[in-house]
Amino acid sequence: MATLIDWLKNINHRFWWIIGGLTVLFIASLIFVTHNAMFYQQPIAQIVKITDETQTEVADEHQNQDIVYTQHIVAKLKNGVQKGKALTLTNEYSESRAYHPKLTVGQDVFVSVDSNDSGQLKGDITDVKRDQALLIVSWIFIMVLLAVGKKQGLYAMISLAVNAVIITLAIDMYIATSNISLLLIMSGAVILITVLSLVFISGFQAQTYAAAVSTLLGTFVLLFITMFVLWLTDEQGIRFEEMAFLSRPPQAIFMAGVLIGALGAVMDIGVSMSTSLFSLYEQNNAISNKDLKASGIEIGKDIMGAMTNILFFAYVSGTIPSLLLYLMNDATVGFTFSMNLSLELTRALAGGIGIVLTIPIGLYTTIYFIHRKRVKA
Amino acid sequence: MNALIVLAAVLFLLMTIIGGKKGVRSFVALFINFFVLIVAVFMMTDPNADPIILTLIACAIISCVTLFFINEINIKTKTAFISTFLTTALMLLFIFMVTDQSMIHGFGEEEVEEQTIYSYYLGINFVKIAASVIIMSTIGSITDEAIAVSSPMYEIRKHNPTISRKQLFFAGMRIGKDLLGTNANTLFFAFFGGYLALLIRYKDLNYTIGEIINAKIFSSEMLTILCGGIGVALIIPVTAMITAYVLTRPQKQKASG
């Protein structure tokens, strides 16, 4: 506790000014997001009163028991020509909340207004307005990253934002010119992201080049190996048809996803290898290539387990709700796993291959750049 | 031949060649962790079991495997474990509130449309499960960062035994700050890669920005990224504090590390 207080005291005045400025921005954005209904095309209504709530117990054919609640709601329209008028809505949700949420007074919802012949407006709820929650969590994210990381926290956020913009632009480009392959466009995005992120972290210097070259080599070798294995095995065991949210052929989207998904982890390895080997070289300019190799492999061994683990959980955890849905609907374990896990496991394994391969790739690339520096010196 | 088996074999081979014994252990650890996750899912099908508590236990086992099995049991991994556990518990409470307030729990419209044959009246609490998903997605990252902070702190203390608790804490914070960006990046890309299909779908179906932001699946993805970022930031002061405290305890109380 004492260390925490010391740490808080250590934060300087300028930082408090920044905090003050951010607080003002926070309040302003919160006010905006609670009053932004006019900017939406879809009608938005705020729940004023929940007049009645009935419940029925249900059991499905798999002996799962649940309770279904029906809420009768009075809401007030917040935008459009009928702004200010009251309308009645019904919401049906289950105790388990597997689909519809339980609504409370004050909540904003998107509605479609149905009939108004008898003067009384009726409507259906299409979705919940979530921008406010998203905004608040975004602010918590910003505050925590700044409080812990200060300048590095800020850099991390800028870098994330830039990367998000690049990927979004790449998707826009793909949609606009659908004759260019998605994989090609994403490869371009990957190169741009790698170069920008690494130069942003450590500037124009030999170790940045080493990290960038290793990252790109690692990423594309991973892509090549994955494609080769899929071709070799005829994509057996991989349920592309189970890929969610499809609006286009799955293979291309899946491979582009593998490429983007592993990029962060591969970049992490590339940076770790080049930074640590270069710092060994800075400490002792006469260090032999053999010693560098030995240290590099040791460093690699330490990080490979952790990094493969990170990717694994980031991918596989998202399948938990679907796994539960299948299992509780009495699907067999084999069917459940093959339908829900094959794609995520492929991603995780492919990413893992990329991570592990980037260790020797990073090692030799960095040694090459150190060698070049030696020759010059 | 099954593509998954071939890919797993390639990964195993590479990990063995490059990582030696530690590589093999890392590969085995992946399988143990996968098993733990699956067991947790099976236990969640029981409506009487609390998914939050199951998740906390699963996360504790997963970080045990990652820290004590791949590495070894020593003072560094022990402090990393305590820090991971505390941070996970804290984050779970926070994320539970977030999933409840933002109503991102359960399945999205797009998913329900695709799986119409199934009953959704399952009697298990999907608000809590949504929180479990988010924390499980980031547990690998949080554990990694804990050991990445506690391990160099131990080295600093070893080379400089007179260092004060406060100085050691700040040293830990500095180390952590340098890792923050890359760790957040790793998670960010993993989530983005996984949801590429969704983003393309939104663009294909001409969703407006307002519709995208409020859509359940998109906001839940965004909240996962944000909560992941908060988690990898929060683990830094927690680990720095606990490690600084443990390493600078008076000598007589110090247990063998």
Automatic annotation (TrEMBL), chain A:
Keywords: Membrane, Transmembrane, Transmembrane helix. This is Putative membrane protein. The keyword Glycoprotein does not apply. It comes from Paraliobacillus ryukyuensis. InterPro entries: YibE_F. Pfam families: YibE_F. PANTHER family: MEMBRANE PROTEIN, MEMBRANE PROTEIN-RELATED. Signal peptide: none annotated. The chain crosses the membrane at residues 15-33, 132-148, 155-176, 182-201, 208-232, 252-271, 310-328, 348-370.
UniProtKB/TrEMBL annotation, chain B:
The chain crosses the membrane at residues 29-45, 52-73, 79-98, 183-202, 222-247. Keywords: Membrane, Transmembrane, Transmembrane helix. InterPro entries: UCP031503_TM, YibE_F. Signal peptide: none annotated. This is YibE/F-like protein. It comes from Paraliobacillus ryukyuensis. Pfam families: YibE_F (PF07907). The keyword Transmembrane helix applies. The keyword Transmembrane applies.
